[in-house]
Amino acid sequence: MNKFSILWIVLITMSCSIDKKKQGMDQARDSTGVKETNPTLNVYTLANKNGLTMRVTNWGGRIMSLMVPDKKGILGDIVLGYDSSEQYRNGNPYFGALIGRVGNRIAKGKFSLEGKGHNLAINNGVNALHGGPHGFHNVYWEAIPSASTNALELHYLSKDGEEGYPGNLDVKVTYTLTDKNELMIDYAATTDKTTIVNLTHHSFFNLAGDGGGDILKHEIMIPSDRFTPVDQGLIPTGELRKVEGTPFDFRKPHAIGERIGNDDDQLLVNVPILCIPNRNR
User: What is the model's pTM?
Assistant: First the structure.
């Protein structure tokens, strides 16, 4: 069994802002009064003893909102998303979603395993991205609420050959809001055939809160000496380049936007960040 555990205290992914209607969230099931057009699409609310609340839908395991306190104790939503679960169907396909079987890109949608070649679904130019068009972000997960209100277990069976991947992959993901105000995401997966798997999560975070502008002034520290350059298709070249002297040196805290305009080949190949206009302005 492959098992992955991730403890998120602070994670920042992108810099856009989006307005949301703040809703009451005091029950295990969705308490917003939204009438789902698809009876299999449900929304669950997690809460810890300190008042943190998080809304999750079983479609793609999406985190719809995460209300956390600032230094003054005022709650704010720090993940980008939409007002209702239905809006996710035609919006950004990865907002807040679980990603699999393999996060990021696989060059030309091909890989070899134990001497056998496998062809994957192509959905990003000539490459396979985030598990394909019908990856884990685009499926319904079985949701199993815990006895408490601070955790939710999601289960999905990815069948042999789905999107081109070998083996039946049985996946369990557990979201937990701890009483230390941490968001924990635990991944567990078992397979009946040799396969590849690289599970991750795709929320877009803005610690300034909903409508708080971009994240360019957010400070971040990454204790890493090297990074992996990518080609024009955003596929890693195989080189492990030193961060020293590059805009990617975050061994000491730096603002995200401090060097984002530098003349660096790796900044030039990055795709533009998708921004969604504020809907209520």
Answer: 0.80
Q: Does the structure show a pLDDT above 90 at 201?
A: yes
Give the tens place of pLDDT for each residue, 18-59: 334 333 222 223 322 233 344 478 999 999 999 899 999 999
Q: How far apart are CA 39 and CA 2, in angstroms?
A: 33
The answer to whether 91 touches 277, Cβ cutoff 8 Å, is no
Q: What angle do CA 80, 85, 88 make, to 5 degrees?
A: 65
Q: What is the mean pLDDT of residues 88-108?
A: 94
**Any idea how long the chain is?**
281
Helix (H, G, I), strand (E, B) or coil at 70: coil
Phi first, then psi, for residue 23 (nearest 5°) are: -120, 155
pLDDT of amino acid 128: 97
Q: Maximum Cα–Cα distance for the chain, whole Å?
A: 58
Closest by alpha carbon to 49, among 143, 209, 182?
Answer: 182
Residue 270's pLDDT is 63
pLDDT of 157 > 60? The answer is yes
Query: What is d(CA 177, CA 238) in angstroms, rounded to the nearest whole number?
Result: 37
Is the Cβ–Cβ distance between 232 and 269 less than 8 Å?
A: yes
Class of domain 2-202: mainly beta
The answer, yes or no, to whether residue 275 has pLDDT greater than 70, is: no
- Name the residue with tokens 């943190």: 52
**Identity of residue 48:** N
For residue 101, whether the previous peptide bond is cis, meaning omega lies within 30 degrees of 0, is yes
Dihedral sign, Cα of residue 31, residue 32, residue 38, residue 43:
negative
For residue 153, what are the CA distances in angstroms to 44, 144, 245, 257, 272?
11, 5, 43, 36, 34
Do 157 and 168 touch, CB atoms closer than 8 A?
yes
Phi, psi dihedrals of residue 65, rounded to the nearest 5°: -160, 150
Domain residue ranges of the chain, discontinuous segments joined by +: 2-202, 219-281
